[in-house]
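Ticket opened by: R.M.
Priority: normal
Category: complex prediction / small molecule

The reporter submitted a protein together with zinc ion and asked that the result be attached to this ticket for the collaborator who will pick it up next week. Submitted input follows.
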Amino acid sequence: MRNAAIFVLCLAFGVPLMAQTQSSQQPSTDLPKLNRFDASAVDQALDPCNDFYKYVCSKWTAANPIPPDQASWGVGSNLQLWNEGVLRNAMMEASKPDSSRTQVQQKIGDYWAACMDEAAINQAGISSIKPALDRIAALKDKSQLANAVAALHKEVPGAWQGDNNASPASLFGFASQQDFNDASLVVAGVDQGGMGMPGRDYYLSDNPRLSDVRKKYQEHVRKMFVLAGENEQQATSDASVVISIETALAKASMDAVKRRDPANINNVRSFEQVQAMTPSFNWKAYIAAVEAPAPHHYVVTSPDFFTALEQLIKTEPLDHWKAYLRWWTLHGNAPYLSQAFVDENFDFYGRALSGAKQLRPRWRRCVQYVDRDLGEALGQAYVEKAFPPSSKERMLTLVADVKSALASDIDQRDWMSPETKKNAREKLNAIEDKIGYPGTWRDYSSVKVMRTNLAANVHQATVFEFKRQLDKIGKPVDRAEWGMTPPTIDAYYDPQLNTINFPAGILQPPYFDASADVPVNYGAIGMVIGHEITHGFDDEGRKFDAKGNLRDWWTPEDAKQYDERGKCISDEYTAEVPELGVKTNGLLTQGEDTADNGGLRIAFMAMEESFRRSGKSLDDKGPDGFTARQRFFLSHAYSWCTTWRPEVARTIITTNPHSMPQFRVNNVESNMPEFWRAFSCNPGQKMVRENACRVW
Ligand SMILES: [Zn+2]
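Result attached by the on-call engineer:
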C-alpha cells in the first residue's frame, strides 16, 4: 500500500510475497471462479458452540490446500486471482502496439510488455543498478552519506516509506504527512526504518524461531553480495556489517506497541532540532537532494532512533556504510534484476519468511508492480470491467445503515457521559465515505514508460511517486486522495482525514455479493464497513477528533471507562499459540480487535434494523435450513476461512497489528450474546465467553 500517513488503519494483513517469477510464457486469459457464501460449506457434524471457525471453515480448508506458490490460501484468494486476471487481460490487450492507444493504455501496456520480457531482463543482469553501485563505491567520506541515502529514497520503490510498511525505508523514512495537532497542515515526517527483516523482534528476540530466521537473513545478505560480484570473504564480512548496523537500528527503534499511541510519535521539531539530533548527517544536503519543499515543521516519530543513528554514523567506518548502502541497493532492486537475484530474494522473503514453496508466476508479479507504480491508470480498466454503478449504490445504503447503527450504539452506552457522546456523534457524522475509486484519476503523464526496460520503468515511477509525496508539503490537504488502488482487496479508515475507504477490489464475492441476501452481505461486507467505522473509535482512533486533529475529546472518567473495556480486549487477545511457538500480543492488535468486535456488532444491529424496516423476521429459516441471524454469523466466519503456512503466521503474529482469522472469528463471536442466541449456545460452552468483552 502506498500511503504516507503513519496511521492508516486497514482491514487485512497486507503481507505481500516478495519478488517472484517463474515463466515468461504469455499467461492464459481465463479467470477463476469466485467463492460465494454457501451454507453447504458448514460441517454440521461439529458443534458451532465449541469452535465456530472450525464449524464453518474446516470443510473448505480441507478441500482447498495452499498452492505451492502461496503462503496462505483462503476464500478470498480466488478473488485476488480474479482481480489480477482482470488487470492482466487489460494489460495484454493494451500491450498490442497500436497507434490508437490512449496514453493510459500505452503506459500500462508497455510496462507490461517490459515486465514480461524475461529474456531481456535476464540479459540486462545487474546493469540497471551499476550507476548506483558505482556512486556508492566513489563515496569519499561520511559527509556524503546524506546524498547517498537521498539517492536510495528517490530511486528504490518504497525506500522512503517509514516503518509502518511491509518493506521499511532504507535507513530512515522521509515523507509528507498531515500534522497530528493541525490536520489541515501538510508537514514533513521523519520516521525510523532501515531494517531488512519485518520488525525489531527478528533482530532482538531470543525466540528460537526468530533467531533461526535471523541466521537465514545473514546468509541471504551474504549471497546477494556474492551475486553482485563480491568474493566470498568480502561478502561474509559485509553481511555481518549489515546485520550489525541493522541490529543497532532495531535496538534504537520504538517498538510497534509504543508506536500505536500517537502521542509517542508526535514529536514536533524545527529543522535546526532535526539537524541537532544527528549532527553527522547533513540534512541540508539530503533535503536539497530530494527536492523537498520547506515544511512548517517536522514530525519526528522516534527521536531516540535518530540519536542512536548519530552514534552509528560516528562510530561505523565509511566502508561499513558503503556495504550497508550496497545491500539496500541490491535488496530494493532485486525483484527487477536477473533470475539469480529474483530467486535468492524469493528464497529468503518467500521461503524463509512466508513459507511459500514455489515462485509465483511472472505475470502475477507484473500485475503487482503495475498496480503499485501506475495504480490509478491500471485501476481504470478494473473499474470499467468489475465495478458497476449499482454496486456503488448498494454500498452507499449499507454504509448509511451501519453508520446509523453505531449512532444508536453510542446512544445506548451507559458508561459514556452525555458530553462525550455528543463529541462521538459529531465525529461519526463527520466521517466521509469513499467507495470504489477516486473521482479524479492521477495523472501519470510525466512518467516515461518504455517497452523494453523494466528497471527503467520502476525507476521512473519511483521518482514520480516520491516527488508527488514530497510536493504535498505546505499545500492544502487533498481530501480526495486515495491510499489504496481500486483493485485492492482491503479497506481502511484514515483518522487524520476522518474517512472510510472501500476500494472496488473488495466489493466482490465473497465479501460483497449483489446476488446474495441481506444477512450474507451484512455478515461479510457489513462487518468490513463496521470495522472501518469503529476504527474511528478504537483505542488509537478515539484520540483524533472530527476534523482529524489529535485532540482529547473525552472526559477523564469516560476515558478511564474506555480503557477498562479496552484492557478486556487486549487481555483476551494475548495468548500462547502452542502450534506455532509464538505468543499473540493483545496490545499490538488492540485497535484491530476493537474494530472487529465493534464492526460485527454494529453490522448486526444494521441488519436488525433493515429487517425491521422490511417487516421480516430474523428467525425465519432459509432454504438451507439456517435462520437469518445464523446466516449472518456463518457468512462472517466464511469470509475469513484461510490457512496459513507456519512461517508467515509467525511473521504476522510477531509484527502485524491484525489478529489471525481464527481469532477474528472465534474471539469476536464468543463475545456476542447475539451469537449465543443465534446458535442456542449455553454458558460453559467455549463460544460463550464468561467475561465477554465489549467496547462498542
Ligand atoms: Zn482495521
